[in-house]
Structures are given as C-alpha cells and as structure tokens.
Amino acid sequence: MTRTVTIGLAQMQMAPDPARNLMHAMELAREAGRQGAEIVCLPELFTAPYFAQHPNPEGGEKAGVPIEPIPGDTARRLSECARENGIILIAGSIYERAENGLFNSCMTFDQQGRMLGNYRKIHIPHDESFFEQHYFTPGDLGFKVYETDKGRIGTLICYDQWFPEAARTLALMGAEIVFYPTAIGHVRGMDQSEGDWQQAWENVMRGHAIANGMVVAAVNRVGNEDRMDFWGGSFVIDAFGKTLARAGSDAQIVLATVDLDHGRNVREGWRFFYNRRPDQYTKITE
Question: For this structure, is 121 an active site residue?
Fold first, then answer.
C-alpha cells in the first residue's frame, strides 16, 4: 500500500497580543485536524509580530515579546492541542529562554502530546529588517529528525532554507518530510534588485526537495507589520519538485496529501545518495 499523509499548514496573521496569537494558532491547528490534516505546522515566531525587523543592540530581553522556557506554559498548551486533536504538531517557533542563551525554537509534539524534541534555529540572519542576531543565540542542539507513525519528520526554521547543507543533513538522517516555519516578506522601500524574492524563496526549497528526494513544506505569516509585507505563499512540494498546494496572501489553512513512497522511489531511481562523494566535499567544512 502507498504510504500517504495529509499535511496542514496554518498560514496566519499575528496580532499584538501574544495570548490571542497562541489561541488563534491552536484554533487553526484544531480546524486543520477537522479538515483531515494528520500533521499540522505553525509559522515562525507565531506568538508575536515580527520584532526582529528592528535593530536592538540591547538584545532580546528588551524586545517586549514573550520569552519563556521549554518546557513552559506555551509548550504545555501546544502539547494539549496536539493530544486533544490527535495530530502531530510542528509548533512553528517561539522565543525560548535557556540557561545558555535566547533561542528561536521549534517544538514537535506527537498525537499523544509528547514532545518529540526541540530544534533551535542554527542559521541566524542579520541584515536590513532581519536583525535576528540582536535577539537570538545560534542553535546548539543540532539537527532534528523524528520517527513517527506518519513518517520521519525533520524541522528547520526560515533562514535555514537558504543553506543546502541543512536540508541534506536532514535527508541523510532519514527525513521524509521537512517543515520550514517561516516569517518572510517584502520590505517597503527596499528594491528587489536581485530578482523576485518570493520566487527565489520557493525555488531554493524546490531544489532541496528534488536533490534529497523528500517532501518540503513551508508555512509563512501574512499581513502588514511596520515596513514588512508578509506575502504568505505557504506551500507543499513533493519529492520531485511538484507544487502540491500553495496559499495566497491571506490567512488560510493549506492542505496537501503527500505520498512518502514517491520520495523513496525518487531516491532509488535517481540514486543521488548512492553516488555521493563525501571525500571530495571537505571544502564545505573549512
């Protein structure tokens, strides 16, 4: 029998009130489950507006947004959401306070509400309107892949999407689906001289899907926040680069049913992993 699983992406707009955002995210997860989603993913930093578009050399403690430990109250409520709705929940990301730093962290819960693990964003951007190095410590827990009854799931966060090494590492760890909770959009007054940012955003992850024979799903936020216009466009791409679903620019739930055996067939047929030459890749780690 073909192994299929239905993915739900909760593309949402953030309000100033963190409690309202958390409640709304759980409502969307619940509705996605009612619509048939077995795995649901929330956006990056979904409890607050995107604060890192503003430089703040004093760091995250002055950001005016919730920073909390894991486990903590938000983790508890998301765990309950996963259990009550019988879904695997990729909990976007929250602002985590730990003994050794402040992290952009993505928790994953199974259908029983058990936390399978916590991924801390490894690649931290720092450029105009994305001043995240003022707020976050680079992740220190390594890459994460979780064995579930709905497939082997990997998580990365937003800026990680631009690094093929991250996607390849998860594939080598056995990931069949990789989720990218995201916060990305256009910056008003900034010229896209390189080309279309949204097209590049989707295309780079299409390449990850094809090169690694795995499903890639990205969920973005929408709405206008100061200079940022978040474009939405959340999508699911199959293991050979076909877009199975793509959202528009409004808040919505995106559903797609993916065939995990298709990814296995791509890997076996195209044999990218069999023909790798790691002995020639030492330049990457210099």
Answer: yes
Q: How many residues are listed for the chain in this entry?
A: 286
- The residue from 121, 150, 176, 202 that is catalytic is 121
Q: Do β-strands 177-181 and 185-187 pair in parallel, antiparallel, or remain unpaired?
A: unpaired
Exactly one of 38, 41, 44, 96 is catalytic; name it: 44
Residue ranges and CATH numbers for the domains of the chain are 4-285 (3.60.110.10)
Structure confidence at residue 10 (pLDDT): 98
At residue 51, what are phi and psi to the nearest 5 degrees? -70, -25
Name every residue whose Cβ is closer than 8 Å to that of residue 207 and which is 6 or more positions away in sequence: 164, 241
Beta strand extents in 45-100 (DSSP E only): 88-90, 94-98
Which residues contact residue 86 at a Cβ distance below 8 angstroms, ignoring those fewer than 6 apart?
A: 33, 111
Tokens of 122: 């490894």
Contacting residues for 133 by C-beta, under 8 A, at least 6 apart: 124, 125, 126
Tell me how far apart the alpha carbons of residues 212 and 18 are, in angstroms, rounded to a whole number.
Answer: 36
Bridge partner list, 254: 9
Provide the residue type at 255 as one letter. L
Q: Which amino acid is at 251?
A: A
Task: Tell me if residue 41 is catalytic.
Answer: no
Nearest to 108 by CA among 80, 150, 76, 146: 146
Q: Which of 41, 81, 106, 158 is catalytic?
A: 158
Cα–Cα distance, 216 to 258 (Å, whole number):
10
Separation of alpha carbons 239 and 260, rounded Å: 8
Question: Is 194 labeled as catalytic in the residue annotation?
Answer: no
pLDDT-based confidence at residue 66 (cuts at 50, 70, 90): confident
Cβ–Cβ under 8 Å, residues 31 and 269: no
pLDDT band per the 50, 70, 90 thresholds, residue 62? low
- CA pseudo-torsion sign 254, 16, 61, 78: negative
